[in-house]
């Protein structure tokens, strides 16, 4: 975007070049009259705004910061935003150096690292599952013996439930660790590639919370029920339903717990996405509090609830703008269409019938025929999304379940070629 009008604010967005959050932020910036520069590793990206932006190396944060600061001399920025877990700490550090609104960089680092986050919250008296690091370069047998079962094993810094596995005994733990080690081969940070987190499984309901911080004060944007039981062994997200049907005092307790976690980390500004568990005694346990927005198409639910796109709310807060929001009296929901099994996608049948279900607002398919489907825990994507808007939360959930029942996923097996041994 050009800067022909010098009165327009300029925003620096730091993002992985493949991030699905880039497009919504670009759209939000255009609607708010904000010029943007994107800093990413996308030197050869086919997306013009990425290709023409700053090109940085995320594996060298110090050099990346130096490159951004040098660019800011010629093109000053009014705000800096990190879109994803891997960019929020760098954005905080850059904003601090430029004297702009920011989270403390150390707080952003803690928020993206599950082991450090757990230790921080435990010290602050915020309820988190009993946990320990498993060092993959040390004796696994000795560490596995110390675990309390059932427990959940997970990478230190991955999102979307990737690599998250529940195990009920030592034999399952060893097998799960072997699977997670394979997933961690793509991780470049040594400490994150050589360790994982083990934590006690908390039985109960799960919710997702979306909010925004301004000078340390937390405003709730939406609270989503996850009506499907998430008991493992894998934790694929499916239904998000709003408004929450939990009792109001419990909803207030959830918001307070998220605020306590933000305060423990030291977060003060910007979006907050949290995942929490409520046990049978209505105790609220933190699973995650991230200094970013919710992922993927789920952010569109916030717009249904507030009347404003989530990304517009984030940018407005960052630049000191005020946007009106509205109350929501109906029900809305999204289904992240799960991948039923591994294979090559041949076709998805029943799409027209699913779209015709009363209450269904939109059905989006994210993958094409011929795409290899990889389910959790190794996979990290969904087939697509179904949205519903109805007179109540229950009606929205019912519509989503009916629409999902109309779909039939047709796959073919994957045949892997092995090299011929001489």
How would you explain this protein's 3D organization?
Helix 1 crosses helix 12, helix 3 packs across helix 4 and helix 4 packs antiparallel against helix 5. It contains 14 helices and 19 strands. The longest helix is centred in the middle third of the chain and has 18 residues. Among the domains are: 93 residues, Rossmann fold (3-Layer(aba) Sandwich), CATH 3.40.50; 71 residues, ATP-grasp fold, A domain (Dna Ligase, domain 1); 85 residues, ATP-grasp fold, B domain (D-amino Acid Aminotransferase, Chain A, domain 1), CATH 3.30.470. A four-stranded parallel beta sheet has the order 3-2-1-4, with helices on both faces. It has a four-stranded antiparallel beta sheet with strand order 5-8-6-7, sandwiched between helices. The chain has a four-stranded antiparallel beta sheet with strand order 10-9-12-13. Helix 1 links the parallel strand 1 and strand 2.
Q: Summary?
A:
By secondary structure, the chain is of the alpha+beta class. The protein is built from 14 helices and 19 strands.
Key terms:
about 35% helix, Dna Ligase, domain 1, Rossmann fold, globular, disordered N terminus, 14 helices, D-amino Acid Aminotransferase, Chain A, domain 1, four-stranded antiparallel sheet, 19 strands, four-stranded parallel sheet, alpha+beta
Itemize the secondary structure elements and their pairings.
Blueprint: E1 10-14, H1 22-32, E2 35-40, H2 48-51, E3 54-55, H3 61-74, E4 79-82, H4 85-98, H5 105-112, H6 114-123, E5 131-135, H7 140-145, E6 151-155, E7 165-167, H8 170-183, H9 190-193, E8 195-200, E9 205-214, E10 217-226, E11 239-242, H10 248-265, E12 270-278, E13 284-290, H11 299-306, H12 310-318, E14 331-337, E15 343-349, H13 351-355, E16 360-365, E17 372-373, E18 384-390, H14 393-406, E19 408-412
Helix pairs in contact: 1-12, 3-4, 4-5
